[in-house]
Write a structure and sequence with these properties.
Layout (H helix, E strand, L loop, with lengths): L1 H29 L12 H20 L7 H6 L7 H9 L10 H8 L11 H9 L47 H7 L7 H4 L14 H10 L6 E5 L5 H7 L4 E5 L7 H7 L3 E3 L14 E6 L9 H14 E15 H13 L4 E9 L3 H6 L1 E9 L5
Parallel strand pairs: 1-2, 1-4, 2-3, 4-5
Antiparallel strand pairs: 5-7, 6-7
């Protein structure tokens, strides 16, 4: 009863807020007699209205439905909302995007409490990639590999091989790291192949870690904490660990156990998508690297929000490293260069070169490697 009354009160406040915003916009139009035609609704008001409507829709979905008539119930049976989804919604917030995918959300929350969780990593990532993140918590026990080992876990972030027994392989076509390496050694699971990735100089697009550290030292800047966005199995974090620099890696398990591989190397994987706000406080990290996952496939507006979120977490004097960012040549000059320039960062390194693989040649793509330093004060 108390939950229903509280829910009704929230709905009433949301509708009152909608009306106030509408009256505010109407009053602005009335006070502007010179305008011959109605002015468009400002974007910030539209965004507020969309947020309120989304909240109303979300809360309405969670409100216990009134008992339907027998005839309508037979014709349109209402889906059963999992009890733990209703319970969680009373205890903790749910991402607003979740309400747009009720079938996926209901499947994720349709489990037996206090028992083993379903093995549904694909379902979880389907929700995450659609903006339903963080996911609702569940009251079930996570599954573990049947023959997991702990005593033999490597301390070296570049071990000769990663132990297969610490991964649940049921959802993957490959059932071992050697299988993944056989099909594509560039995926990051071949640690011997990855060892030289950030320590050698092959072209102007490369920035070896030794050179990065020297640049920071020459500028009187210290590198201690970093974030690697879209870092796969964590090879950059592994290389920085060898230099006593702590780097966490954002990564997703898209077709392979990237998170597990990073953890087996003694690194911290953050299971978050590219579009999510970085889960760290403002101005606390010294370095943010954007790996190969950050490229022209990201919509321009999403990329702009990402860059300014990176600016949020970087301290003054910190570095942003765009490592082999690629896009079409014409877009690099007309779109991406001005977009990056909005940050107002100092250009420490800026190198471009043609992308010579089949996709690059077909689409006229170029690579950009840029090291940019955030101003100490703004």
């Amino acid at each position: 009863m108390g939950f229903t009354m509280g829910l009704n009160l929230v709905l009433l406040m949301a509708m009152v807020a909608t009306n106030i915003l509408s009256l505010y916009h109407l009053s602005k139009n009335v006070q502007s007699p010179r305008a011959p035609t109605p002015q468009p609704v400002p974007d910030h008001l539209l965004n507020q209205l969309r947020t309120i409507r989304s909240t109303i829709n979300h809360l309405t979905r969670l409100q216990p439905p009134s008992p339907p008539s027998s005839a309508s119930a037979a014709a349109n049976p209402a889906p059963t909302i999992p009890s733990d989804l209703l319970l969680h919604s009373q205890l903790s917030p749910i991402a607003s995007a979740c309400h747009g995918y009720p079938d996926l959300l209901h499947r994720f929350m349709n489990y037996t409490p206090f028992s083993l969780c379903p093995h549904d990593p694909d379902l979880a990532e389907a929700l995450i990639l659609r903006g339903c993140h963080p996911l609702p918590r569940r009251r079930c026990f996570s599954r573990t590999p049947p023959k997991t080992t702990s005593a033999s876990l490597p301390h070296n972030p570049f071990p000769p091989a990663l132990p297969d027994s610490n991964v649940i392989w049921a959802k993957y076509s490959c059932k071992s790291f050697s299988c993944l390496n056989h099909y594509n050694p560039n995926l990051g699971f071949d640690t011997s192949h990855e060892y030289s990735k950030f320590t050698t100089y092959r072209s102007e697009l490369d920035l070896p870690v030794s050179q990065l550290l020297q640049i920071a030292k020459s500028a009187g800047s210290v590198l201690r904490l970093g974030i690697d966005i879209g870092g796969g199995t964590g090879s950059f974090a592994a290389t920085m660990k060898m230099q006593n620099v702590t780097v966490v890696t954002t990564t997703m398990n898209l077709g392979a156990p990237y998170n597990e591989a990073a953890a087996l190397r003694g690194l911290v994987p953050l299971h978050v998508p590219l579009q999510q706000r970085l889960p760290v406080f403002d101005g606390v990290v010294d370095l943010v690297r954007c790996g190969h996952a950050v490229n022209r496939w990201i919509p321009e507006t999403v990329l702009e929000f990402m860059l300014f979120d990176i600016d949020r977490v970087l301290r003054g004097g910190g570095y942003l490293w765009l490592d082999h960012f690629f896009g079409k040549g014409v877009s690099m000059e007309k779109v991406y260069k001005p977009l990056i320039g909005k940050l107002g960062y100092k250009k420490v390194k800026w190198a471009t070169a043609n992308k010579t693989d089949s996709s690059g040649l077909k689409n006229g793509e170029v690579y950009l490697t840029a090291l940019l330093q955030k101003p100490v004060t703004k």
